[in-house]
Design brief:
Layout (H helix, E strand, L loop, with lengths): L20 H11 L4 H5 L5 E4 L14 E16 L9 E9 L4 E7 L4 H6 L5 E11 L2 E5 L2 E4 L15 E4 L8 H11 L12 H6 L5 H9 L4 H32 L12 H8 L6 H14 L6 E6 L5 H14 L3 E5 L3 H15 L16 E5 L5 H13 L2 E6 L13 E7 L6 H8 L7 E6 L5 H7 L4 E5 L9 E7 L4 H16 L3 E5 L10 H4 L6 H7 L5 H10 L7 E4 L5 H12 L5 E4 L12 E6 L7 H8 L9 E7 L6 H11 L3 H11 L2 H4 L2 H4 L14 H17 L7 H10 L2 H6 L4
Parallel strand pairs: 4-6, 9-14, 9-15, 10-12, 10-13, 11-12, 13-14, 16-21, 17-19, 17-20, 18-19, 20-21
Antiparallel strand pairs: 1-8, 2-3, 2-5, 3-4, 5-6, 5-7
Helix pairs in contact: 6-7, 7-25, 7-26, 8-10, 9-10, 14-25
Amino acid sequence: MDLVPALEEPLKQPLKSVLGPATAKVMAEHLGLHTVGDLLHHYPRRYEERGQLTHLADLPMDEHVTVVAQVADARLHTFASSRAPRGKGQRLEVTITDGSGRLQLVFFGNGVHKPHKDLLPGTRAMFAGKVSVFNRRLQLAHPAYELLRGDGEETVEAWAGALIPIYPATAKLESWKIGKAVQTVLPAARDAVDPLPPALREGRGLLPLPEALLRIHRPHTKADIADARARLKWDEAFVLQVALARRRHADAQLPAVPRRPQADGLLTAFDDRLPFTLTEGQQKVSREIFSDLATEHPMHRLLQGEVGSGKTLVALRAMLAVVDAGGQAAMLAPTEVLAQQHHRSVTEMMGDLAEGGMLGGTEHATKVVLLTGSMGAAARRKALLDLATGEAGIVIGTHALIEDKVQFHDLGLVVVDEQHRFGVEQRDALRGKGRQPPHLLVMTATPIPRTVAMTVFGDLETSVLDQLPAGRSPIASHVVPAADKPHFLARAWERVREEVANGHQAYVVCPRIGDDIDEAAGKKAGGKSPEDEAEKRPPLAVLDVADQLAKGPLQGLRVEVLHGRMHPDDKDAVMRRFAAGETDVLVATTVIEVGVNVPNATAMVIMDADRFGVSQLHQLRGRVGRGSAPGLCLLVTEMPEASAARQRLTAVASTLDGFELSRIDLEQRREGDVLGQAQSGARSSLRVLAVIEDEEVIAQARQEATAVVAADPDMEHLPGLRTALDALLDEERERYLDKG
């Protein structure tokens, strides 16, 4: 968030650099810091107190750390080696302590002379390096260090008071070098223009921005840090919420055609045929959607529901209501398998109501067409014609729907399934095919905590389906530690055979197709820890696993494979055979992750489960237990019990609550991932705001932002806020805030 020209000065310039050119280059390449403002917004991760040493006992393995500690002893050893055969090799071993633990530093060869002179017992310093283990002891090899003592110009006072800021650093640039660079540009903080309206800032007792920047980098007390962070959190939450509020405001100005279903039309005919009653949740969400569809502004609604909560049925009823009102509805699915699956389930649910214009179609019927990239030319031409003439009321397709050739007679509703799979340009391209902006319903089966919904989907109203339809069965989930307990894996395959013997079917999911990774990657893992071994070997592949199972533990069962590289007709044929019960075990990649509905499939074995994210595992698991028989999901992993990956799997196995899992998932990922900068290619704007912990700040900022935008949509009277918005949202990012 570069706020003003003074802060937009590049750190690296052809003629003069604010910092040394080498430092500026490392900052740009490794930390993404290009301007004075970027550096001022690179906040300390934590602070060390001079009288209080870091907990050496808690150091994480294999991470780059900065510690403040005291030298306990230093010993110089000589040894013989291939380079120094006469016993002239030198190794300096320094032990540092902080009262909680001890850590060994080692220096070799010519690198021993300076530390041997500097690191005398009793010396205090900051040390930075990568933590490793040698002879079962933690050590830092050749760490960088900075002495903490009055030493010419390098006085302790250069570190401003008792609190030493420790910055997010890289192996190429230690924390204290970043600290010195910040010291150089800190006077520019006084020129920072404040984005918060004065009334808001004073009303909430927040520091002015220049003061907050000074205190976060050079605090004298812990209260300074708390005040600065409270202020900077507000900046991030508020500017983001203003951007979203402006989107909502702009969308509310757009015109749309109200779509109200006929009294005894297609929707009524469909509802009369349903063999079950809608859940209370489905009825409530449908009322919210129908109320939006009846207005003269486009609906922008996010429908989130647990796996199997009946979102597709709710979306179909919305599409039928629009067709009833004379419009057309388009459903955008992320994969061909899912588009075909939706087309099949929609036509089955509708029966002869989906046979408009055909023999056997009923009075209110419409036509439901499928449009995907791999369709034959004749079928494609026919589908395009049905859309252009309005013969087809409903179209279900992949991004092939977005192509220029696709013309609608009167597009009234766009339903986007699994929104996180689509970039915003794709969504907008489809919306642009209406004569007036169509209504928009976005669906996701990935449960989203309230704060993330407010932050990521802040331009959408949210509906939640959290009830499962009657008749759904519980799913038992277990972790199968294949490396520690191989007999557990053997038992897993026995369980699959038992399910098949009882007339059911099973999925086996693998992270990879096969033949597509350099197998040499696996051969380099010799002599490593079990965790390294599991990490380094290539992920298990569908083609290999299917072959091994068919010849081994699942011999005699009907085993088929499904993956994204197959021809779409072959994929469809495999899914049809599986749905018809002609296949016992389907070995697949994550193409089955969303939308695939085979009620007779009761067991799922996920190989290398640690290679999948929490939400993905939850999605995959939702493919079983869709009928009356209980579901079973086995998470196979070779990761050791103490590893973070194994703890993540244990969390997934311990709950079926998607909202609880989404919190766990979010806590384990960087905040930036949540804001989808993978899509926009820009760094996350969040540096101090934590989406889960700061729920209250986000909710209050949303309220304030809505009021500010209602009073002054163009920010004419708030130049500081306007500048901050421009910095957050160059045009590229403004479009991406729609994201998923």
